[in-house]
Amino acid sequence: MGDDMPRESIRTPEKALSARFVETVAEPGKYFDGQGLFLRVAKNGARQWVQRIVIRGKRCELGLGSPPAVPLAMARRLALENRGKAMLGGDPLADKRKAREGMRFADAVDTYLTAKLSEFRNEKHRKQWRSTLDTYAAPILGPKLVSDITVQDVLRVLEPIWKTKTETASRLRGRIENVLSWATVAGHRAGDNPARWRGNLSEMLPKPAKVAKSDNQPALALADVSRWWDDLAQREGMAAKALRFLTLTAARSGEVRGMMWDEIDLGDATLATSATRAVWAIPASRMKNGRPHRVPLPNEAAALLASLPRLNGSPFVFFAPRGGMLSDMSISAVMRRMQAAQEKAGDQGYLDPASKRPAVPHGLRSTFRQWAAERGYPRDMAEIALAHFIGSEVERAYQRSDMLDRRRAMMADWSGFLGGQAVQVDNVVKLGAPG
């Protein structure tokens, strides 16, 4: 009788498998889940996902990898995809055999991004992911099998731009690493990741921090602020108004361009009264750090908003001609035209004091930061105004206040400085005073 017993016992749990069960099960057998999926546990403890499926009238078994590299959720997704292919007349077994022959990097990028792009917060980030891989990696890595890509291949992609476009190159390296990591988990390649930094590319390329100084966004010199602000005031158009608002609030371009009217609370402010309580509340979904951010609006910023027209059917405060969001280039173009006009008149224009390059919109945040430091405003308050993280995670957990009222006074002083007013900061303790 014992000779007739199957070598593997079949275990049928009362409910579907759990991730915890998959991690801890040790008794040999077959443990079924659904969609023909089961976990096979061998006598030596080895585990493998297997799917029983009918393909074009023939019953087959497909191996789907092993835990923990392929967790329960991934195994279920693969089983469901295979079942769908088979129902539509496809052959997932043949597809698997073809995959074993090799996946090219370009195909790996497509497959990886199909699954991962939905995790990114905004459309610009999604486009940047695809754009950097298509522009720099695809010409060299695209046609190569992921299993054949070496460290030298990755270096061929990175070295031409590592010193000239350091930030872009560093992000590109991470994206190549992610794609190849997915390819390894999916069974298309094995071994170390050739795009890994630590203990790998770090031995062949200089650290990004050592060569990235030239990547800093050119800032406006404090000495040029007043005349630049007067110059900007002469500019017409929605993009110029958006640039004024961006400067008054020290916000990022994307935050301003995507601003909607339901984020604004002007309080009791009108054009004839003080806008002391006006606030712009930016939701977490639109912030780079993924956290909501409140911006106290100085009087001039509130008055600018109150003077803007509203376009029916468009939620945007600073809308494009067709009602959509302004492009990033539209605001940058205003500064480029201002610089060009200065150069045409024989003036050097508005150059970054260090790099001698023309200032750009994002550099205005550095100008604000320098101004706040020189005026003696607390570092944390200035960093909060820029929506930067301050301190460690523990410190941030205890620091619940965003210093809104104190920042309101600071932003009012900043607005005055832009307009050329001499502002006295009363709440600063001067260090090193003679005793």
Task: Describe this structure as you would to a colleague.
It comes from Roseinatronobacter ekhonensis. Residues 103-184 form the Core-binding (CB) domain. One of its GO terms (molecular function) is DNA binding. Residues 215-411 form the Tyr recombinase domain. The chain is of the alpha+beta class. The chain folds into three domains: 2-100, Double Stranded RNA Binding Domain (2-Layer Sandwich); 105-215, DNA polymerase, domain 1 (Orthogonal Bundle), CATH 1.10.150; 222-418, Orthogonal Bundle (hpI Integrase, Chain A), CATH 1.10.443. It is 44% helix and 9% strand. The protein has 17 helices and eight strands. The protein has helices spanning 19-24, 72-87, 92-100, 105-116, 123-141, 151-162, 166-185, 208-211, 225-233, 238-249, 253-257, 299-307, 328-344, 363-374, 379-385, 393-398, 404-418, and strands at residues 10-11, 29-34, 37-41, 47-55, 58-63, 264-265, 279-282, 293-296. The strands form two sheets. It has a five-stranded mixed sheet with strand order 1-2-3-4-5, covered by helices on one side. It is elongated. The termini are far apart.
